[in-house]
Amino acid sequence: MTLHIKTQVERWPIAGTFVISREARTEVVVVIAEVSDGAFKGRGECRPYPRYDETPESVVAAIESVQLESPDRQALRARLPAGAARNALDCALWDLEAKRAGVPAWTLAGLSAPQPLLTAYTLSLGDPAFMAEAARGGDWPLLKLKLGGDGDPARIAAVRRARPDARLVVDANEAWDAANFADNMRACADAGVELVEQPLPADADDRLVDAARPVPVYADESIHVTAELAGLRSKYDGVNVKLDKAGGLTEALDVAREARHLGFGLMAGSMVSTSLAAAPAHLLAQSADFVDLDGPLLLQRDRQPDLRYRGVMVEPPDPALWG
Q: pTM score, two decimals?
């Protein structure tokens, strides 16, 4: 019997404006895939990302082009490339399979029962005073700073002065270059930053092979699927695994396992999106050194039921949400 697949495009307003080196957003557009066998339904959410030439329309078309006779996630991997469309379908299939079997998704994945996790909280890119004020606005013990290239040492120092108690990680989103790399890395080391995420453009990261890295450097835009990991060993100390890049939880779990085998540090992240996208990433994040699942917290409102954030901890998803 062929599974029935439906899609829906949703818009969710952001609380304020979310700014990174390449864009500023006041809302996020997500695509929902719903897969039904007539008795049970599974849902998955993805965030189409222009950085990878994805639009809501292209993602919907890719999802609706697929025909599945069963919740076969391996068959899905053969029919769609890694990316947002496959992620939505893959996560919907996990959800459907869990509901059909009457067991949680973590059991199907062969994982231990998920535990609450400490998530980073992201500060949008801005001038030093703006970012310092944002850092003082909450008691998050782990802050992730979005950076922009020139002027980043002042931003890092301002946040460190504002929050001398906080752990810091930074994400340049490919905005650094050969001219400012050394100064920016030195500023990170001086401030006690624990990792630098994707400092150079993915197509220029060969420069990292011989560059001094006083702070561990993690790949983001440079890593999508398992097959890419071996080529990153001389460039990066760790990787940020995201379901929208990997094309679903199935591939993301494989990336995480192989990354550990190769000696990489591991971050589990997600795009700014609702709890439906962050829920499967919570399973991936169980084995991560750093967790960045604050996307739902950056929205004006979230879908219901939602992930529960208790202080600085994000709780495992309720099956009514996903899995």
A: 0.96
